[in-house]
Amino acid sequence: METKSIMIVGVGGQGTLLASRILGSVLGTAGYEVKVSEVHGMSQRGGSVVTYIRYGEKVYSPVIEKGQADMIVSFEQLEAARYVSYLKKGGTIITNTQKISPMPVITGAAEYPDGIIDKIKAMGINIIAVDALSAAEKSRQCKSR
Fold first, then answer.
1. Contact 71, 93 (CB under 8 A)
2. Which domains occur in the chain, in start order?
3. What pLDDT does residue 40 have?
4. The model scores a pTM over 0.85
């Protein structure tokens, strides 16, 4: 089996790290060799969090370079836009429709971009938008807002 690469991206506090650890564990249990890596410098302050999961018969590195991700799972749509360049041609983005304003937007120094999902679609990228926050609230599994 060819090595597959998945990125999970989001904002600190959304569960990005936990999700990558769970997915890595499940893939390992399924018999794949798995490498997981995470970058979460400002995650405790609501900053960007990115994790890399690579799996297959033999995986040499956890790092995913630009243009190599088979799939990006984004817990926040601005993060989908931030990491879209990592997606390989023919790859898929699954993104939450939730918007979490970064600090420059909160302070008024910038505006949250409009139409992120439509702009990604216009690039010819397969993107699936899901209102995960509403689904979590309906199932009473929403831990934070």
1. yes
2. 4-138 (3.40.920.10)
3. 61
4. yes
